[in-house]
Amino acid sequence: MRLAVAALALAFAASPARAQRFDATSPVTGQPDNPGVGQDTAPNGLPALRRRIPDGLSRDDGRGSPGGDATSGDQTGGDSLSSPLSPPTIPTQTQGQPGVSQLNTRITSGGQRTGGSGTTPSNLAPSNLLRTRAAPPRRIGSATRRITQEVTQVPSPALRLTPIIQQPVVGVPLPPVAAPVRTILPLLAISPALGLLTPGFILGTDLARAIPTDPAYAPIGYQFGSFTILPTFAQSLGYDSNPDQTSRQFAKGSVALRTDASLDFQSNWSSSSFQGSLRGSYLETPQNEAASRPAADGVVRLRIDANRDLHIDAEGRFLVDTQRTGNPNLLAAAGNVQIATATSRPLLAVYGASLGATETFNRLSVTLRGSVDRSEFDNARLSDGTIINQSDRNLNQYSLQLRTAFEVNPDFSPFVDITGDTRVYDLRRDTTGVQRDSDGISLAVGASFGLARSLTGEISAGIQHRTYVDPTLRDINAPLVNAALVWSASPLTTVRLTAATGVTETTIPGSSGIFTDVATLEVQHDLLRNLSLVVGGSFLQNVYQNSTIRENGFSATARLDYHFTRWLTLRGTYIYQQINSTQVGSSFRDNTFLLGLRVNP
Q1: What three-state secondary structure class fits 294?
Q2: How far is the C-alpha of 360 from the C-alpha of 370, rounded, in Å?
Q3: Which residues pair with 276 in a beta bridge?
Q4: DSSP state letter for 420
Q5: Residue 513 gets which letter from DSSP?
Q6: Which of 70, 157, 506, 588 places its Cα 20 to 30 Å from the Cα of 210?
């Protein structure tokens, strides 16, 4: 008996690791409850990965099997980890029998599984909780506490409240100053030519400057150095029912040949800007040569960005037109004699220049601008040889404008505008012996805005006052309204509105001046990408102060443009003009039809 006990004790002492091993598989998933299985003891005494794979199995066999084979790679593959306490004998379960206890299963020295397996489920087998709580393999190396603290305690760069210091930007070009929607009205609002033009000229000038078309048919122009140049040439043929623009009994229709040419240019500088628009046209009426006439207008602008907050603006402008033979000033100069038989329509020219500077103080901007304008009138020649001298109407106008604006936001900037001017005639007295030199001042309050990028422009209203040197001429007090608006109603429809008021000069005896209102409304709609329709109307009103003369004018225009290519356009135009005047011989009606080609080389 004592010999048997001693032999048993020697047997346990010879294999101490076997007495300490315990391992089991889950009766639910069939995976080993101890994830540390997979390591052996290396010759140097340190743990090493088990490299032996059961016969007939690959390293990846059984890793994702739904039955949870005991031969899966999680247990015997090279990527598995095992605890140093795990025995070489691994209890497992038979494949295809999940939930059955396999605690009596053994692994032989050849790697094959032997032993019987019970068929009765064992509710006492370790669960998933035991597997998750199993001892992890011993880590080799230093502890991870210090590293973990460094990672978790250092905030991410996005959360650090570190100051960002930016260097001031120098030399960035200022945003381009948008050109006025109309270049003629700002000139006419302060020049003595406003009351001398017909509504047809004002509307025709606007319509000649087409609203931008589809980019596929927009002109490309030419590049000359740092400039983009856009030349245009148009030739039209049609009929004019009253080219003289005189009363019905003297009207004489004629075939109309109209030639138009224009040149637009724009600099491509990184800062500052130089741009301009020049137009000229000639209407030839072969069946009524006396009515043939030229017309031209243009403006050139230069902006110099002196620094970030100061820019200097310079502008040159001109206007050439003809006076209609039924103009009340011509009739008065001729002694109220009908001059419809004039050999030609007398020319008038208005030209001038402006120079100003704008200083910006944060959101507040102050603009100071001075202007000089010159008006000249050609003599009228009658068919009987009589010459009507109009040199007493030539004058110079000097004006100074101060505007203060505050930018509430980038889309809304209210302003206050104060303008003072003086008008000096070449002759001290006109043909009637009256001194017509005068001084004027105006105050206007308005705003420039861009609402949702669909409605942009400028509008202002105020009052104007003008006093005259001659005591026989009464002072004039009149309202002041100016507007230049563009409304993009849709990608296919654009509406443009311009309006201006002013006090212009006259030679009517006893009248101090003319209070003039001008308004133009145009609508462009693109029927197709290459087919656009433009309709518009204008209104002109002249009220002669201290006189009974009143003039109301109306003009309507319809134009159809068909773009064959980017550089060739077929254009059809119809213009209707009408002026009703209390002066005898000043009223007229006119219909003009034109069809031609427009070339944008």
Answers
A1: strand
A2: 18
A3: 265, 300
A4: E
A5: -
A6: 588
∠ at Cα 324 (321, 325), nearest 5°?
140
CB 523 within 8 A of CB 552: no
pLDDT tens, residue by residue, 235-255: 999 999 998 888 888 888 999
Q: Among residues 98, 146, 145, 144, which one has the least CA distance to residue 125?
A: 98
Extract the tokens encoding 344: 């030609």
C-alpha angle 368-372-374 in degrees, rounded to nearest 5 = 160
Rg of the chain, C-alpha, whole Å: 48
Q: Output the six-digit token pair for 343.
A: 């050999």
Q: Which amino acid is at 368?
A: L
Closest CA to 359 of 351, 346, 368: 368
Q: State the residue for tokens 């059984």.
A: 62
Cα distance between residue 507 and residue 330, in whole Å: 9
The answer to whether 426 touches 437, Cβ cutoff 8 Å, is no
End-to-end CA distance of the chain: 125
Contact criterion met (CB below 8 Å) for 86 and 36: yes
* Cβ atoms 277, 299 nearer than 8 A: yes
Q: Is the pTM of this model over 0.90?
A: no
- Give the H or E element holding residue 8: helix 2-14
Residue 578: CA atoms inside 13 Å, Cβ hemisphere, count?
6
Q: Which residue type does 201 have? A: F
Query: What is the DSSP code (8-state) at residue 409?
Result: B
CA nearest 345: which of 321, 375, 328?
Answer: 321
CA-to-CA distance for 248 and 136, rounded, in angstroms? 113
- Nearby residues of 430 by Cβ (< 8 Å), 6 or more positions away: 392, 393, 436, 507
Beta-bridged to residue 231, according to DSSP, are 263
Q: Are 413 and 407 in contact (CB under 8 A)?
A: yes
Instruction: Tell me how far apart the alpha carbons of residues 81 and 50 are, in angstroms, rounded to a whole number.
Output: 8
Give the max Cα distance, the chain. Answer: 167
Helices and strands counted in the chain (H then E): 8, 25
Query: How would you classify the pairing of strands 531-544 and 550-563?
Result: antiparallel
Residue type, 358: T
pLDDT in tens, 5-62: 566 665 555 554 444 444 444 444 444 444 444 555 566 656 655 554 444 444 444 4
